[in-house]
Automatic annotation (TrEMBL):
The modification N6-(pyridoxal phosphate)lysine is found at K236. InterPro entries: Aminotrans_II_pyridoxalP_BS (IPR001917), Aminotransferase_I/II_large (IPR004839), AON_synthase_class-II (IPR050087), AONS_Archaea/Proteobacteria (IPR004723), AONS_Proteobacteria (IPR022834), PyrdxlP-dep_Trfase (IPR015424), PyrdxlP-dep_Trfase_major (IPR015421), PyrdxlP-dep_Trfase_small (IPR015422). Substrate binds at R19, H131, T350. Homodimer. Transmembrane segments: none annotated. This is 8-amino-7-oxononanoate synthase. Pathway: Cofactor biosynthesis; biotin biosynthesis. Pyridoxal 5'-phosphate binds at G106, Y107, S176, H204, T233. It is an enzyme of class 2 (transferase). Residues 39-377 form the Aminotransferase class I/classII large domain. GO terms for biological process: biotin biosynthetic process. The gene is bioF.
Amino acid sequence: MSFDLAARLAARRAENLYRQRPLLESPQGPEVVVDGQPLLAFCNNDYLGLANHPQVIEAWRAGAERWGVGGGASHLVIGHSGPHHALEEALADLTGRPRALLFTTGYMANLGAVTALVGQGDTVLEDRLNHASLLDAGLLSGARFSRYLHNDAESLAKRLEKATGNTLVVTDGVFSMDGDIADLPALARKVKAKGAWLMVDDAHGFGSLGREGGGIVEHFGLGQDDVPVLVGTLGKAFGTAGAFVAGSDDLIESLIQFARPYIYTTSQPPALACATLKSLELLRIEHWRREHLQTLIRQFRQGAEQIGLELMDSFTPIQPIMVGDAGRAVWWSQMLRARGLMVTAIRPPTVPAGSARLRVTLTAAHSEAQVRRLLEGLADCFAQLSSESAHA
Ligand SMILES: *Cc1c(COP(=O)(O)O)cnc(C)c1O
């Protein structure tokens, strides 16, 4: 027996599924340098344009001078410092929940919350299109694991009928590859009727949805009764890094006791928490960022529909263009890149087979002129594709 890695890699390449890492040679933003080439990019998750904001950078710098650069220990030993604690209080306030708990990444927050809440003899029900970290968390928990049809409260209700033990229903708030949002009021009604708990991972909704950037629960006006377990990540609209779970005092204390990905890891650098405190302040008060983003989303959708592109049902900054075939998605991405535009091709297994797409993301840092440039590039490629298939 040996590991035939070369054959495995060759097979992946043959299926047009081979992944490569573009090398970013500039700060994050609309105008970047990638692999030596200046590009106008529409693929980061920095929805509010805070990842390179001077005030956030200054907060990080001042935080490092005051607190040093490393967390130094796990939270339960001696790594839980003042800025971590202040950030947890500010996040509880943003979410309207009694408490919030800081995690190092969203992936770990999801693993930690699900595995602390359910185990053998319990049930975890997830939307089919949930983020990989939520699916992994469900599998790792050891609970009975089943997936319901995408955003389908009836399909969920059928599975709830058969659920045993403590039952956790888990969904993305904004679906990361489709841009649509969970029908939380309908899901919450079914979940509450069965005495189960709803957990929402709103990685893409915080900052971009809700009047103050409170995400999907603010958008729908849902409280802790409806969504007892609320997860947010800090690497997207917040522009920094890390994640949090918000909820009741008992929930947070339980995570501190039982969430292994919380307990057995070094706390994030305190200076990072200082930076996030500043970006959280900007995220809440600078409404113009969300308003400008909505203007760009409308502009993009109108323009793309005029070209004849297939969009998805989304009013969020995630605006995928459905292409279908993985090879064709790569072709689009390369053609755009030749025109100075960077848009990522998303292929299986990240999305179901046959639903490869270009994942366009818009941010408050983009201008209307930049969105126009994207639309011109897309129109060009579309025309070329149509003329090629006419000759084929
Ligand atoms: C990005 C993302 C995560 C992971 O968050 P990280 O902080 O990047 O680890 C989790 N859930 C969803 C829905 C995401 O989009």
